């Protein structure tokens, strides 16, 4: 089944060139199928790039998904046209009374700030609390994973001596969890962050399960409430050239940046990167939709509200 997207979303034409089938909302309305409703809170600066990366992964499920985009009311995007935000994004205030089968909250370039100094922190905490009772399962990615774990469990984040940057090998602590269905014993995930959460803080909190970690990159995947919340510290959604673009960007700005680990052949930025993570990235998002969204969500969307007390 395809994703149902708003007509004229830039990602549609980009993904059609990759032979990925997406459907606009008008055509979808003629089908007698209740699609899964998924909302994305996109906190990344390059909104269109992130939209495309996420849609590419969500499109691999046989389930029909209707995708909405949410934005922070108190924050103006500097890297995305105002017209795009007005046409495709809605403020939280507009949808706070709605219920969704799934939600994805992206990372944000604010990780070196204390949480309380992020300008939209109070609004974001309200969205976290809303998702707790209005969404069947929520994926928290990178900084939002740190923020969600801090909000719900008081987990601290720590500054790293250097940016954790590259593609790192990971293992599963519980291979029989449905989120890992089809995964190999070892798998790779891109990381790009200046801060970390630590193992001892996760395993000491009641209600948290540490599902995956890396000797080089540390904590990777944490779950609470049986998958109602899944926290991911890496960027499985990254396209093949995202780390390269970040590397070139930081170099051009004169920022301290190392060549991304395990990315370029022979650590040579002149060579095309080796993509090691796309297969497991597709499995991650497909398994999330199938086992934690579709198989857990009520048949009627309005009944999701009954899950808030579980």
Describe it for me?
Strands 1, 2, 3, 4, 5, 6, 7, 8, 9, 10, 11 and 12 form a 12-stranded mixed sheet that branches. Strand 3, helix 3 and strand 4 form a beta-alpha-beta unit. The protein is globular. The protein contains 10 helices and 12 strands. By secondary structure, it is an alpha/beta fold. Helix 1 packs across helix 3. It is 30% helix and 25% strand.
Structural class based on helices, strands and sheet pairing:
alpha/beta
Write down the Rg: 19 Å
Number of strands: 12
Tell me what portion of residues adopts beta-strand conformation.
Answer: 25-35%
Distance between the termini: 30 Å
Work out the helicity level. 25-40%
Query: Which blocks of ≥5 consecutive residues have pLDDT under 50?
Result: 25-30
What's the assembly state of these chains? Answer: single chain
Mean pLDDT: 89
Number of helices: 10
**What global shape is seen?**
globular
List the helices and strands and how they pair.
Elements (H helix, E strand, L loop, with lengths): L2 E3 L4 H7 L5 E3 H4 L7 E6 L5 H12 L6 E7 L10 H7 E3 H4 L4 E6 L15 H14 E7 L1 H11 L4 E15 L13 E11 L2 H5 L4 E7 L3 E7 L4 E4 L9 H11 L25 H17 L16
Parallel strand pairs: 1-2, 1-4, 3-4, 3-6, 4-5, 6-7, 7-12
Antiparallel strand pairs: 8-9, 8-10, 10-11, 11-12
Helix pairs in contact: 1-3
């Amino acid at each position: 089944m395809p994703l149902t997207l708003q007509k004229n979303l830039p990602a549609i034409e980009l993904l059609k060139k990759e032979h990925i089938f997406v459907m606009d909302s008008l055509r979808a309305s003629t089908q007698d199928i209740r699609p899964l409703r998924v909302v994305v809170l996109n906190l990344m600066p390059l909104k269109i790039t992130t939209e495309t990366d996420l849609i590419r992964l969500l499109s691999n499920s046989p389930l029909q998904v209707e995708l909405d985009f949410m934005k922070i009311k108190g924050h103006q995007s500097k890297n995305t046209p105002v017209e795009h935000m007005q046409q495709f994004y809605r403020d939280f205030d507009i949808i706070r009374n709605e219920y969704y089968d799934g939600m994805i909250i992206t990372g944000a370039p604010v990780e070196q700030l204390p949480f309380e100094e992020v300008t939209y922190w109070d609004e974001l905490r309200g969205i976290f609390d809303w998702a707790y009772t209005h969404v069947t399962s929520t994926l928290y990615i990178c900084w939002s994973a740190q923020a969600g774990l801090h909000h719900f469990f008081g987990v601290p984040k720590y500054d790293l001596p250097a940016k954790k940057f590259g593609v790192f090998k990971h293992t599963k602590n519980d291979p029989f969890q449905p989120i890992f269905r089809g995964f190999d014993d070892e798998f790779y995930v891109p990381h790009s962050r200046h801060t970390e959460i630590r193992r001892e803080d996760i395993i000491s909190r009641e209600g948290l399960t540490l599902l995956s970690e890396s000797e080089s990159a540390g904590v990777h995947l944490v779950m609470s409430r049986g998958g109602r919340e899944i926290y991911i510290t890496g960027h499985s959604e990254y396209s093949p050239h995202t780390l390269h673009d970040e590397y070139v960007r930081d170099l051009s700005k004169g920022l301290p940046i190392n060549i991304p680990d395990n990315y370029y052949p022979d650590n040579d930025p002149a060579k095309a990167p080796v993509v090691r993570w796309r297969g497991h990235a597709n499995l991650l998002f497909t398994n999330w939709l199938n086992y934690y969204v579709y198989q857990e969500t009520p048949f009627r969307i309005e009944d999701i509200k009954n899950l808030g007390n579980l």
